[in-house]
Design a protein that fits this description.
The structure is a single chain. With about 375 residues, the protein is an alpha/beta fold. The chain is built from 14 helices and five strands. The chain has helices at about 1-5, 15-35, 35-45, 90-95, 110-125, 135-145, 155-175, 225-240, 255-265, 275-290, 295-310, 310-325, 340-350, 355-365; strands at about 180-190, 195-205, 205-215, 245-250, 270-275. Strands 3-2-1-4-5 form a five-stranded mixed beta sheet. The longest helix has 24 residues, at about 155-175. The two termini are about 65 Å apart.
């Protein structure tokens, strides 16, 4: 790395000079440490050990004097900084980085803390990965436009800042829902990290509030496990949030259905209900199983849309025809069968694109 810095055209003069002097010092130290056989023999005879040799470690290569970088005010400009790499943290610490001739005053602790909380809120609201905070460009952005600030690290954002944000959100929720009546519900799925989770929320005056999310990856997916989770959440809502839950809702799966029966036996006054959004999807699925004359048209529409999506040349030609007709849709989606508007959207797409498809057919046959 030192040889590279010494010959790198992107490195500043001070860095190349330091690399050359460091190489010279290390070569000199290695030559002195090598010694001669006679010297080793003399040392061995003097110490009384017949086979003892001096032990040299990596510590011998560490320079004993600090790096000389010149007068303090000479290298305060950005043009004198190491631009080739930010991985040499020792050089970054050794060469000051200011945007002016004077060191900007650091932000007051309360302002710095508010900045970190705001950045944490932006990251959480937009789904930005926490490790982006450790990116060099992000740090430069904060330093450039907020003089005196300290760019927050990923550890700060995902640790203390996120904990404080969660505590503040919980406090606001308690102030809003305390002493009110609500209905609870739960559902399970896999998140983007492929973790099996079960989340519960409570609806109060038409407004949903997230209660808890449980990691159940290592637990059995049974009605007893789900009942224990629901009971814990009911206790939390009653003791911490001060909510009176009068009903509980879950999907129509086997474990959820049995959980509701167990919950009704344990708390007889609690209303337990199926999720009617799931029920409607089941009804739609049963409807499409009927022998109706127009159902084959939906299958044909799905086949046509999939064919265009899987053939790029034909899709490109169709898009060129679509751009010439301002009244047609430019995209076709194959939604799940239980989506109520899915069949209608497919038929509407083919109807709106009938003229571009006819023109495309004539172009191909021509």
């Amino acid at each position: 790395m030192l040889k590279h810095l010494m010959n790198c055209a992107n490195a500043s003069d001070v860095v190349r000079s330091w690399a050359a002097s460091e190489l010279s010092l290390r070569a000199k130290a290695a030559k002195e440490n090598a010694g001669s056989p006679a010297k080793y023999a003399s040392m061995s005879h003097t110490s009384g050990a017949s086979s003892a040799r001096p032990q040299f470690t990596v510590l011998n290569n560490i320079p004993t004097s600090p790096i000389e970088i010149g007068p303090p005010n000479k290298y305060l400009r950005r043009s004198h900084r190491l631009e080739a790499s930010r991985s040499l943290s020792s050089l970054d610490e050794g060469i000051p980085y200011y945007f002016g001739e004077t060191d900007p005053e650091p932000l007051p602790p309360e302002v710095q803390a508010k900045l970190e909380q705001d950045v944490c809120a932006v990251y959480a609201a937009n789904g930005i990965p926490w490790h982006v905070a450790d990116n060099f460009l992000f740090s430069e952005l904060i330093r450039k436009w907020i003089p005196g600030s300290r760019p927050p690290s990923s550890y700060t954002l995902s640790g203390p800042c996120l904990d404080r944000a969660a505590e503040a959100a919980e406090k606001r929720t308690i102030e809003t829902v305390s002493g009110k009546v609500g209905t609870g519900q739960c559902d399970g799925w896999k998140n983007i990290a492929k973790t099996n989770v079960v989340s519960s929320l409570v609806t109060i005056e038409g407004e949903p509030y997230l209660v808890k999310t449980h990691d159940v990856s290592a637990q059995a997916k049974t009605a007893e496990t789900l009942k224990r989770i629901v009971i814990d959440d009911l206790v939390y809502m009653a003791t911490v949030l001060s909510i009176m839950v009068i009903a509980w809702c879950s999907d129509a799966g086997g474990d959820s259905k049995r959980m509701r029966k167990l919950l009704a036996q344990l708390i007889p006054w609690l209303i337990v209900l199926d999720c009617w959004a799931h029920q409607v999807n089941l009804v739609v699925g049963d409807y499409f199983k009927l022998d109706l004359p127009w159902l084959p048209d939906i299958d044909k529409a799905t086949e046509v849309i999939k064919w265009f999506n899987n053939h790029s040349v034909a899709l490109g030609l169709l898009r060129s025809q679509q751009l010439a007709d301002p009244h047609c849709a430019t995209s076709g989606n194959c939604r799940v069968l239980t989506c109520l508007t899915g069949p209608y959207k497919k038929q509407a797409f083919l109807h709106e694109n009938s003229r571009p498809m006819v023109h495309l057919k004539g172009t191909l046959y021509r």
